[in-house]
Amino acid sequence: MPELPEVETVVRTLEHQIHNQKIENVIVRYPKMIDCSPATFKKKLVGQHFRRFDRRGKYLLFYLDDILLVVHLRMEGKFFIQKKEEPINKHIHVVFQLNGKNELRYQDTRKFGRMELLPLNTDLKTFHELGPEPFEEEFNASYIKNFIKGKSCPVKSLLLDQSFVAGIGNIYADEILFACRIRPGRSVKRLTYKDCENIVFYTRDILIKAIQAGGTTIRSYTSSLGVTGRFQLSCQVHAQKFCGTCGNEIHVKWIGGRSSYYCPKCQEK
DNA sequence: ACACTGACCTGCGAGC
DNA sequence: TGCTCGCAGGTCAGTG
Question: What is the pTM (predicted TM-score) of this model?
């Protein structure tokens, strides 16, 4: 699933492939995917060029000449650069026809992804109620201590809360907590200052390693150039049967509406 | 204000 | 074999 590292990989790959390309036409095949009418969407995008590429949390940011196109891939959203004559499968919901032979196609089996158009000067700091980026200095142990004051949720829910820190999803939340030796169900009330320091350290450590892996393991699909960095970080606990460290059986618990994987031996309550 | 639940979607695998 | 059912996961609206 696209979390921060995968979104980062997609952004950098697309930047390489379609920088300065012009949108000549837009076809919206599933209107619920966008935040306005297909006619408006098309009108605002045709004639624009892809000038700059960035990421905020799990959101992809495409800076065009006069407008900002924001895309959230949710669970299964993928971008492909394909030749215009290539057949369009039923899961492709938005097509950006570019100058030249190619199209930028958005595919999303479960139709969960969303696209929106915003002014170029949109304040990304408070955008979608997002918290700091994991690599910003603002995300530190004192910030965490302050954020959890008066709260009582499980620490797993804290990591998934995008207003706490932007970009962590279910898989990396489990991996970060394993590295910190904290059980996902532990209340944030029981986090020590040292735990908070560890959360900051291992969040960055794991995300950096995942980004690096994403940069090197992009898989090409059969007839098209895949732009989704489908890396799979070798997980220690998430979706594993046995602990990568002690070999103990991994437990799965339902926390905050998500399955959470942990090692009862390596991670403390 | 905070915490939890269901809706949004489709494909896949388990169980009958 | 063919059916139903539950699960996967990010975000947000709605409820308690």
Answer: 0.91
Nucleotide nearest to A239 (CA to C1'): C8
Q: What is the pLDDT of residues A4-62, one digit of tens each?
A: 888 888 898 899 999 999 999 999 999 999 989 999 999 999 999 999 999 999 999 99
CATH topology of domain A4-126: N-terminal domain of MutM-like DNA repair proteins (3.20.190)
Percent share of chain A, pLDDT over 90:
61
Residues 149-168 on chain A lying near strand C, CB distance under 7 A: 160, 162
What distance in Å separates the CA atoms of residue A11 and residue A5, rounded to the nearest whole number? 10
Active-site residue, selected from the candidate residues A51, A74, A145, A258: A258
- CATH class of this structure's domain A141-262: mainly alpha
State the average pLDDT over residues A53-75.
94
Say what the pLDDT of residue A1 is: 67
Helix (H) or strand (E) holding A158: helix A155-160
**Residues 6 or more apart whose Cβ sits within 8 Å of residue A111:** A30, A32, A33, A93
Across A185-209, average pLDDT: 93
Q: How far is the CA of A75 from the C1' of C10 (A)?
A: 7
Q: Which nucleotides of C are covered by protein (CB under 7 A)?
A: 7-12
Question: Is strand B in 7 Å reach of the CB of A257?
Answer: yes
Expressed in percent and rounded to 5, the helix, strand and coil fractions of chain A are 30, 25, 45
| Sequence spans of domains, chain A | 4-126, 141-262
